[in-house]
Amino acid sequence: MAQATLPPEVLDDAKARRYSADAAGLGRLRAGAFVAPALALISLFLVFPALWVLYLGLSNYRLTGAAAAAPQSVGFDNFVKALTDPEFWNSTWLTFEFVLGSAVIGQVVLGFLLAWIMRDRTGPLKRIVEGLVILAWILPSAVVSFLWVALLDRDDGTLNTLLHSQDFAPLLDHPMLSIIVFNTWRGAAFSMMLYGAALGNVPPSHLESARLAGASGWQQLRDVVFPHIRGHVLTNLLLISLWTFNDFTPFLLTAGGPDGKTEVLAVHVYQVALQGGELGYGAAVSTVILLINLVVAVFYLRLLRSKK
Amino acid sequence: MSAIELRGLTKVYPGGVKALDSLDLAIPDGEFFALLGPSGCGKTTLLRTIAGLETATGGAVVIGDRDVTGLQPGARDIAMVFQDYALFPHMNVTDNIAYPLRIKKVGKAARQQKAAEVGARLGLEQLMDRRPGQLSGGQQQRVALARVMATQAQAFLFDEPLSNLDARLRLEARTFLKKLQHELGVTTVFVTHDQAEALAMADRMAVMESGHIRQIGTPAEVFQRPANTFVAGFIGSTPMNLLDGVVRGDTLEVSGCKLAVPQSAEGLLHDGEKIVYGVRPEYNVYSAGPVDGSLGGNVSIVENLGASYLVTLDVNGVLVQAVVPEGHEPLIGDEGYALPRRDRALIYRDGELVPA
Amino acid sequence: MTRFVLHRIGFYVLIAVLLAFFTVPLLWLASAPFTSDPTYQVRLPDFTSENFRAILDNPYALGSLWNSVVLAAGTAVLVVVFAALAAYALSRVRLPGRDALLYTLLLLSSIITGTAAMVPLFQLAVELHLIDSQLGLILIMTGGLLPAAIFMMKDFMDSTPKSYEESARVFGASPLQIVRHVVVPLVRPGLATIAVWAVANVWGNFLMPYLLLSDVEKQPAAVIMYTLYTEGGQANIKLLATFGLLYSVPVVLMYLFVSKKYGFRFHGGIKR
């Protein structure tokens, strides 16, 4: 033990850097290698397309023809075209109706109602109701879309049978209302589960003290429950609005028709860019969608952070 | 089995927090050594730096005659028991104990035999096929010890080995650990925040505070002659009375009372200097009537310690504690006198013991 | 007392209405496959298995289910492996810019949806000759699912104590040994969750395969199902009923498995 050791100052970094101090001794180099494949795929198939869409929006790219071979920059023409196009504004308005009707009103209200009436129940009734609501949510969209096509069919749809009506064709006569009801049915499970979890976190002692003070059901809801789940309501609203806004499933029911009466933005992009071949114009609309998503997502992440 | 030596060991975290400040420490071969201190004092960082789980910013760790400062934890020939034991939940007891040997590429039959051997020594024969989740806290601890024993490392490191056991089991495990360490004779360093645990188990101990070692010594030395007021306040199940005083000729004036100079400090004090007078409640002799050279006041609290009572006197506004045997405890409000034992009382100057 | 009775009655009427709303659209899927000569109308089934012949008669039905399996399994494997590696490194090593990276990943995964990115993705697939390539589709869907998967997986890794790895490390295990012997077994439930989540996502995904696979032989069940009920002429209802059922069953089984084994932990959407 008599051998000379260097004075501490000289040892400093050279020695410390010889190996890494994370739990498994992985080291930054290996850690980088672990992250790399995921980052490569995300960059190529998620980040790059998002940037590409910005570039496309500024070009006259088409699927076929002269512009397909040599696309040229056209500045903000596509955006100007979109913003002055009545079809774009029609789609935007329809999307607004769809999100407001099926997500903000439909799913939130129905989801909360389901969570509220099931809150202190146990047993088979609760399991059946929840199971059915969740089933509507997890079945493949192509299957449920067809189920609704069959349900609403003009000739021998089940709805007509139930109503003893004939030739009632909701998908043709009230297409927007149809997809709103459909999407409410389809997505209520998420809100139900989120509110169910939130209601489970309301301390029973608070509800009991409100009941002791003689509060009615409605007063309990307003004064005790709502303050506790306010954060969840906002989270829920932002998430389902974002999802509904980007939902392509209406296409499976109506393909945007009849007469573009259900051509929400998601479907509009498809029709214009991939059916019509106007990639540049479609990209400009995509950019608008991206921007709206960005705004909602930033709000959502702010909310998550402030909760932590 | 090897000695452990630390030379000028320093650990600075990114962000500038100095967890260890140039520590020197020598632990001879075969010693059971305790690192004691309040939470955040750096004792766990020190243990983890010896293990190599934290890299030293400066200084050296020497195990046996090897400087291991730059070596991976696995190359240091040490073994460690973690606070939560870190038994792999997906392996049964045999596989857990044999894991270090698996890493050393010992054949399956050989390592299972070794695991059975060590397991039997710790009374785990019946449990070898169970998963850690099916074991009690005490059993888990013994599996962790068995796993460490199976390594035949040069030194053992235990991080708060008893803190995950419930109070009753802890006393039992304390005795068991001490006995085991003496039988094995392996140099062992353990970390604890419980001074009673350190006093009971360790051959020697280091008391740490904010990255510094404040005293190194045997439990008896640390208990009887704490080197400074920090150690004096930290060691002992009832904290030491630390009273401000002034030297008046060849006596002391402490909160209005006249006390004799303790034997250890005789002839070392100067007239008029300010000191801190330290005496453990156990070394205060209590009486109901006035005694020369005692701290007199009124009883303000009486606490039951079982076979004795802890009496708190209000001496002119300063609280002084004394331990009184059962059957002699006073009532609240009584007059009382605490006479410190001259051979046990201590004097601190600027927070350090006189004589150092 | 009457108030209480009225309350009860109101409650059960409400439950009945809600049950009907959620049940009626699903009835057809339960009855039609087992009804002779099914129509769009829901009728009491006579429990025939005759309709299932239609699946064998259709040249693409069984193949499309197999395609769905290939796409789902391929994507799930890539997502689990890459997400686990990345999440482990991000959880355990202080890489520079880690927090910013995670934040960006979370943001990206929520804003770049299939809808917003269909135009460039289609074009990218054309340029890279990935149209009609199942591997290409797998890679694209993996890229889309990875950010959320990494995020969920990192949460899981963060909640696993480091002392297991440190313990193995003190015994001399190398980083790769630690990953193999300790980390993978410890996080297996998390890996299973991510795998199920990825499979469920790909299984139901319609837009991406619809966009990128034009060869009927390569299309998954989602696209074939859509083609079956939108193509011209009289739709083959026998086929639609049985095929729809067969296509749905795996999802339901998977849901039952997950909710039984892990209690359907609420992860902010096991689907989508």
From TrEMBL, chain A:
Topology in the lipid bilayer: Multi-pass membrane protein
SUPFAM superfamilies, per database record: MetI-like
Protein name, entry field: Amino acid ABC transporter permease
Family affiliation: Belongs to the binding-protein-dependent transport system permease family.
Subcellular location: Cell membrane
Entry keywords, A to Z: Cell membrane, Membrane, Transmembrane, Transmembrane helix, Transport
Annotated ABC transmembrane type-1 domain residues: 93-300
InterPro entries: MetI-like, MetI-like_sf
GO BP term, pick one: transmembrane transport
GO cellular component: plasma membrane
Top-level division of the source organism's lineage: Bacteria
UniProtKB/TrEMBL annotation, chain B:
Keywords tagged on the record: ATP-binding, Cell membrane, Membrane, Nucleotide-binding, Translocase, Transport
ABC transporter domain ranges (all copies): 4-235
Keyword ATP-binding: yes
SMART domains membership: AAA
Gene Ontology BP terms: carbohydrate transport
UniProt superkingdom: Bacteria
GO molecular function, one term: ATP binding
GO cellular component terms attached to this protein's record: ATP-binding cassette (ABC) transporter complex, substrate-binding subunit-containing
One Pfam family in the UniProt entry: OB_MalK
Name of the protein in question: Sugar ABC transporter ATP-binding protein
Species this protein is from: Planotetraspora silvatica
UniProtKB/TrEMBL annotation, chain C:
Membrane topology value: Multi-pass membrane protein
Annotated Gene3D superfamilies: MetI-like
Alphabetical list of InterPro entries matching this protein: BP-dep_ABC_trans_perm, MetI-like, MetI-like_sf
GO biological process: transmembrane transport
Intracellular or extracellular location(s): Cell membrane
Keywords: Cell membrane, Membrane, Transmembrane, Transmembrane helix, Transport
Transmembrane residue ranges: 9-30, 65-88, 100-122, 134-153, 190-212, 239-258
ABC transmembrane type-1 domain mapped to chain residues: 65-258
GO CC list: plasma membrane
Keyword NAD attached: no
Family indicated by similarity: Belongs to the binding-protein-dependent transport system permease family.
Stated name of the protein: Sugar ABC transporter permease
